[in-house]
Design brief:
460 residues, alpha+beta, five-stranded mixed β-sheet, 13 strands, 52% helix, rod-shaped
């Protein structure tokens, strides 16, 4: 259940991050929009304020001709002069201004900006500094929104000459620095506060909808978590009940096996002895199925105890062969044993559990094949580790199923005529028993040609 809480927390965190990212993106767009409006309003205010200063009587007023090419010819200068509007007395006052340096330094981008900077220098020379109250008044009237802002005019030594505006806010998120004039004698710093509160007020409906969607998503996650928790509790109750039933079944079956073994040993009639042997094997088969079911439903919580003892693996293989032959005597098949282990080698394993693994693999090989299937149990050493292989020439397994067949309750859908009863627990249980021995289980298969299931039994 713990993993479901972790998944839910991750989902909630992801939803919250997405909401914050959405709000941040919208706010960044709002800041960009307001910044562009401020830039536009300042440009207009600077133009009007400069024109107002230009109305102050100045006998030396005129119009600059911007020189941007060192190779400008006299004819080009004359053409530029003739293109200027005439003053009332028919005279021109022309100033040659080199705007290349200003453009190279990024102070101005166009000839009109160079011209504006030139006039700032002219007005500063005449003692007419930029009028901040007028600039602020024009800026405020041109802005279509209320944005706290301030101006700070300073010289090249960063000494404040004048200031104007709102100084109630400490940190600004909008700042522009303007050079007043080409000579760099004065600088104007403009700061503004683009408030998040005003953004929230403007975007209240989209933000409210985003918040509602977040709550809805979180509610869905919590609801699913509640459903999972209830199903988990129901599953645990079902598991406990099933475990109790399995425990109740194991006792009578074990007793029945003991009785059948005793009757077989004391029976003198050959026919009755075969019948009792057959019944004992069938009861062992039932016992094996009960153990498999119990181990599978408890696989996440159980700790498999391995009772290691020196064991003759070949003898276990022979026992399994006889039992499977007895169970599937109605189906034509051949089971052979290829023992390549040293005769004196008796690996220390849990004989009962290895027998159950082997029985499951051999029984599957016979079950999932047509009549006449050939099954070989091969015992060998690989890198000094005992390995058991069960090879058959049955139906085989498609590649897409190879990685899934060891999952609990996974079954391969067979075509019509090949359906076999099963619950998808045998291979899962066998894999857990192999891992309990510290070994590995793997399969090699080709559809239509058969399969080879192998497992290793490392020695401690």
């Amino acid at each position: 259940m713990k993993k479901y809480y972790i998944i839910a927390l991750v989902a909630m965190a992801a939803i919250l991050i997405l909401l914050i990212s959405n709000i941040k993106g919208r706010y960044d767009g709002y800041v960009q929009e307001v910044s562009e409006a401020i830039d536009k309003a300042y440009g207009y205010a600077e133009l009007i304020e400069r024109q107002i200063r230009g109305r102050i009587p100045n006998p030396d007023s005129g119009r600059p001709v911007i020189s941007y090419d060192v190779e400008t010819t006299p004819k080009q200068w004359v053409d530029s002069m003739l293109s200027l509007p005439k003053v009332k007395n028919g005279n021109y006052v022309i100033y040659a201004v080199d705007g290349r340096e200003a453009k190279a330094k990024g102070i101005a981008k166009s000839d009109s900006e160079v011209s504006a900077l030139y006039w700032h220098d002219r007005y500063i020379d005449l003692g007419f500094f930029i009028n901040l109250p007028i600039l602020d008044s024009i800026f405020s009237s041109h802005m279509n929104m209320d944005v706290p802002h301030r101006y700070i005019l300073s010289d090249k030594e960063k000494q404040v000459i004048d200031s104007c505006g709102d100084f109630s806010f400490k940190q600004a998120n909008y700042q522009r620095n303007y050079q007043i004039g080409l000579k760099g004698r004065q600088f104007l710093q403009m700061e503004a506060l683009i408030s998040f509160k005003k953004f929230a007020k403007k975007e209240v409906f989209p933000l409210l909808m985003s918040f509602m969607l977040m709550l809805l998503a979180l509610g869905c996650v919590l609801m699913q978590l509640t459903v999972i928790r209830k199903k988990e509790q129901a599953l645990m109750q079902r598991e406990a009940a099933t475990g109790g039933i399995i425990h109740d079944l194991k006792g009578p079956v074990t007793t029945a096996i003991s009785i059948m073994e005793s009757l077989k040993d004391t029976e003198k009639d050959g026919v009755m002895k075969d019948i009792e042997s057959h019944n004992a094997i069938m009861l062992k088969h039932v016992q094996h199925e009960i153990e498999t079911l119990g181990n599978t439903i408890r696989e996440e919580r159980m700790h498999i105890i391995v009772n290691r003892k020196p064991t003759d693996i070949a003898l276990l293989a022979e026992t399994v062969k006889q039992e499977v032959d007895m169970v599937y005597q109605a189906k034509q098949h051949i089971i052979s044993i290829d023992n390549q282990l040293p005769q004196d080698l008796k690996p220390e394993v849990d004989a009962d559990k290895v027998e159950r693994i082997l029985r499951n693999l051999v029984e599957n090989a016979v079950k999932y094949a047509d009549a006449g299937v050939e099954v070989q149990i091969r015992l060998a050493l690989q890198n000094n580790v005992p390995v058991v292989m069960v090879q058959d020439n049955g139906w085989g397994i498609a590649p897409k199923h190879i990685k899934k067949i060891f999952k609990p309750y996974y079954r391969i859908e067979q075509p019509v005529g090949r359906h076999r009863n099963g619950h998808g627990m045998g291979l899962t249980n066998s894999m857990h028993l192999v891992r309990a021995h510290g070994g590995k289980m793997w399969v090699q298969s080709e559809l239509g040609k058969g399969s080879t299931f192998s497992f290793s039994l490392p020695q401690t």
